[in-house]
């Protein structure tokens, strides 16, 4: 016995129908092919990369989250002592950079460091003991002679520090900070920008007419390991040293400006980014107006910025509201990632937790949130005054 079933076959397309379909496809594909060939002829691969086409979004991996400081002896018998401003700098780096390691490159020996840990003043002891797993003292021997024939004696400790910082940053990469530099906000946008080296300008000195943008600032910069900038400076700073205060800054700035011509090799920010104030005491944005207590009521506490990075308009509006509530004497830190607070050593009487939390100085306004976070984490009481670190 058999059964039959019917199978429905798809209808056959006539020759004319298939021919018309083929023509339509050809008319669609042909213009795309011609366009592709035209673009290829105008922008070969080498030229396309020159113009940014086919180039990766960044040429370099993120700058390492390694923070470097340098602290050298002024003389053989100078004890190791670090004030609250140094503790503040390191805590701000911990807060906003989240470093994997903090190095203090020093010529103090282990005996001096141990003695300061056990018998030093309160702020020195606190700095040396708060981050034992994170902070590492790295022994270095700073040079004593430089110049074209290594016969020019290096007198200033600041110049010795210049040699050490570039040697270390070239070796491992990271973020170099002087102890008078305070991080004011997260550095992630800069560290992940794909540049090999990032620096910021500072106010011009008296020889530059006090112009707004002078040389790059040597107290705060960041680099990948063995960047072109760090390699060049490390190789040339010895031969180029002449003992003049600004010589290294001028030479380094020239090098950085030339390297801007190489894609992703060097980014130079304006002075507001890292060094928004001047080192002249009597300048409108100088050290007196930065550190000294201002007359009148304190600055009002700011409205917290919304934690909504994908809604930048809301953040912007909160910044505007805070600026509208400011005192007339307040500086604007809105576009500053770092604050290189020049001449900190001469204004230590204005740099202690109790005064800074009162928001009665521009420096206090800048670091208020950082000091408040110290209190919230139980690192300080917030009532420590000027004499606290003396015992």
From TrEMBL:
The keyword Acyltransferase does not apply. Keywords: Transferase. InterPro entries: GlycoTrfase_DXD_sugar-bd_CS, Nucleotide-diphossugar_trans. Coiled coil: none annotated. Pfam families: Gly_transf_sug (PF04488). GO terms for molecular function: transferase activity. GO terms for biological process: carbohydrate derivative metabolic process. Residues 297-307 have a biased composition (Pro residues). Residues 290-311 are annotated as: Disordered. The keyword Cytoplasm does not apply. Belongs to the glycosyltransferase 32 family. PANTHER family: ALPHA-1,4-N-ACETYLGLUCOSAMINYLTRANSFERASE, TRANSFERASE, PUTATIVE-RELATED. This is Glycosyltransferase family 32 protein. It comes from Plenodomus tracheiphilus IPT5.
């Amino acid at each position: 016995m058999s059964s039959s079933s019917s199978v429905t076959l798809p209808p056959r397309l006539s020759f004319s129908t298939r021919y018309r379909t083929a023509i339509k496809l050809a008319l669609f594909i042909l213009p795309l092919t011609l366009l592709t060939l035209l673009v290829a002829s105008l922008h070969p691969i080498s030229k396309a990369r020159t113009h940014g086409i086919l180039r990766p979004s960044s040429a370099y991996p993120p700058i390492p989250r390694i923070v470097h400081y340098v602290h050298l002896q002024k003389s053989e018998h100078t004890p190791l002592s670090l004030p609250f401003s140094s503790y503040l700098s390191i805590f701000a780096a911990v807060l906003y950079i989240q470093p994997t390691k903090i190095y203090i490159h020093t010529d103090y020996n282990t005996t001096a460091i141990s003695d300061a840990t056990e018998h030093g003043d309160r702020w020195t002891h606190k700095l040396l003991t708060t981050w034992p797993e994170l902070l590492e003292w790295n022994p270095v021997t700073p040079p004593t002679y430089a110049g074209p024939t290594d016969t020019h004696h290096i007198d200033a400790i600041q110049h010795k520090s210049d040699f050490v910082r570039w040697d270390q940053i070239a070796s491992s990469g990271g973020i170099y900070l002087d102890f008078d530099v305070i991080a004011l906000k997260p550095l992630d946008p800069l560290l992940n920008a794909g540049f090999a080296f990032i620096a910021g300008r500072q106010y011009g000195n008296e020889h530059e007419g006090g112009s707004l943008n002078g040389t790059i600032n040597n107290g705060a910069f960041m680099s990948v390991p063995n960047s072109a900038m760090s390699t060049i400076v490390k190789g040339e700073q010895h031969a180029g040293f002449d003992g003049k205060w600004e010589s290294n800054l001028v030479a380094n700035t020239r090098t950085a400006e030339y390297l801007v011509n190489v894609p992703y090799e060097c980014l130079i920010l304006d002075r507001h980014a890292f060094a928004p104030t001047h080192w002249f005491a009597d300048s409108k944005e100088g050290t007196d107006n930065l550190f000294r207590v201002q007359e009148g009521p304190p600055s009002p506490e700011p409205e917290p910025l919304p934690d909504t990075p994908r809604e930048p308009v809301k953040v912007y509006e909160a910044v505007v509201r805070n600026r509208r509530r400011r005192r007339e004497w307040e500086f604007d830190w809105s576009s500053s990632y770092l604050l290189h607070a020049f001449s900190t050593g001469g204004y230590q009487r204005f740099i202690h937790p109790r005064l800074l939390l009162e928001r009665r100085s521009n420096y206090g306004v800048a670091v208020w949130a950082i000091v408040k976070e110290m209190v919230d984490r139980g690192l300080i009481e917030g009532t420590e005054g000027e004499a606290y670190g003396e015992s």
